[in-house]
Write a structure and sequence with these properties.
It is a single chain. It contains two helices and nine strands; from the N terminus they run E-E-E-E-H-E-E-E-E-E-H. By secondary structure, it is an alpha+beta fold. It has one domain. Helix 1 runs antiparallel to helix 2.
C-alpha cells in the first residue's frame, strides 16, 4: 500500500489519529459488515483509492462538521464506503459509511454523530464521485 507523500493533518475529531496513509474503499457491507472487523479488512472490496493529504483533509472536514448530521436514520446498515487510516501499514482508525440508511460507524467517536443531513449526505456522495466510486 502506498503512503501519502505528505499526509495532511486530519481535522476535527480525527485530529489525534497517528497515520501515514488513508485509503478509501468501495465495498459491499451487506448485513452490517464494517470495513474492518477485528483488525481484518473486508473481503468484499470492489474499488480502492489511496487518498492524498488534500482528500484526507476534505473528508475529515466533512465528517467533523456538525452540519453534516441531523437527518433521520433508516433501519439498514449496509455500508458501501470505508475509510481506513493506516500507520506503518496497520489500521489506526476506520469509518464505515452507509448513505442508504444515512449513518456511519467510526472507531473514533464523533460528537453529533447520527443521521446525515441532506447537505452532509450530498457532500459525502460528491466525495465518493470524486474518487470514481
Amino acid at each position: 500500500m502506498a503512503a501519502c507523500a505528505n499526509p495532511a493533518p486530519t481535522n476535527g475529531v480525527f485530529a489525534g489519529i497517528p497515520y501515514d496513509s488513508t485509503v478509501a474503499y468501495s465495498y459491499d457491507g451487506e448485513g452490517g459488515q464494517e470495513i474492518m472487523d477485528d483488525g481484518v479488512l473486508s473481503g468484499r472490496i470492489s474499488k480502492t483509492a489511496v487518498l492524498n493529504g488534500k482528500q484526507t483533509a476534505a473528508i475529515t472536514d466533512i465528517l467533523s462538521d456538525k452540519s453534516t448530521y441531523g437527518g433521520p436514520l433508516a433501519a439498514c446498515f449496509d455500508p458501501h464506503l470505508g475509510l481506513v487510516f493506516y500507520r506503518e501499514g496497520k489500521p489506526a482508525a476506520y469509518i464505515s459509511v452507509c448513505l442508504a440508511c444515512n449513518y456511519l460507524v467510526s472507531s473514533v467517536p464523533i460528537q453529533d454523530e447520527g443521521g446525515f443531513s441532506d447537505n452532509g449526505a450530498k457532500a459525502i456522495a460528491d466525495f465518493e464521485k470524486g474518487l470514481g466510486f
